[in-house]
Recover the amino acids of this structure.
């Protein structure tokens, strides 16, 4: 299902011009893909958060796609455009680019330790990114890649609430996307900035039906505290997952 906030059709002519390129920042961080600017923040289009899975049972939310995900998404999108209709293009792009690289490896390991595979009746959380993709929806609080002074925005500088551009995506666009999902989900916020947004949103009647795995550290290899924080909270995470699994069965 294509997001109602998709810029895909608007950006398609520029995307189609990207054949035989090296996918550098100069080629992708350009005016045709610029969605908004505010002081030292800039938001650019990327095609991998435009597909929504309304049948998901698990939602994994990051803060914003980084440069590596953006580059991966454009490569996959151009490759898929030669063979598929728009909805399939966006699905394939999301499947390839979401939390791609070592981050996905770390994330799968953490989800498995929390008992998510057992709760879903699958062998490993790796299947959520492959044969059981229909159970998963991946997304970002800020739907499109945001850069601060040209570097990946981390959610802290500036805080989301202090930016009109970021606040609109976090507190209007993002909850509308979550409301497209039919099932009461297990929502996994990656990192503190995502958790802060979801703590505010989880009180809304339409979003209170979900179960939230608050406290889950960001799986990035650059997060030096990841393992310690995860191990300290693992018992708590396992309990939350078990309670959610029991609710699904009842």
């Amino acid at each position: 299902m294509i997001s109602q906030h998709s810029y895909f059709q608007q950006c398609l002519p520029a995307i189609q011009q990207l054949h035989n390129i090296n996918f550098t920042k100069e080629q992708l961080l350009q005016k045709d893909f610029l969605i908004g600017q505010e002081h030292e923040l800039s938001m650019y289009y990327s095609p991998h958060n435009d597909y929504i899975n309304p049948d998901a049972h698990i939602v994994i939310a990051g803060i914003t796609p980084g440069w590596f995900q953006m580059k991966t998404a454009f490569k996959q999108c151009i490759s898929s455009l030669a063979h598929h209709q728009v909805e399939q293009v966006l699905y394939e792009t999301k499947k390839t680019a979401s939390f791609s690289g070592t981050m996905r490896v770390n994330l799968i390991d953490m989800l498995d330790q929390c008992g998510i595979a057992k709760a879903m009746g699958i062998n490993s959380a790796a299947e959520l990114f492959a044969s059981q993709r229909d159970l998963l929806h991946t997304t970002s609080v800020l739907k499109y890649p945001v850069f601060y002074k040209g570097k990946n925005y981390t959610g802290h500088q500036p805080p989301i609430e202090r930016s009109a551009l970021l606040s609109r995506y976090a507190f209007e666009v993002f909850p509308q996307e979550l409301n497209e999902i039919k099932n009461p989900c297990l929502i996994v916020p990656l990192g503190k900035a995502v958790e802060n947004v979801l703590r505010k949103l989880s009180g809304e009647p339409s979003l209170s039906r979900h179960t939230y795995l608050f406290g889950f550290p960001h799986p990035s290899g650059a997060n030096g505290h990841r393992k310690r924080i995860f191990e300290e909270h693992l018992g708590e995470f396992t309990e939350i997952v078990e309670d959610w699994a029991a609710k699904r069965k009842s």
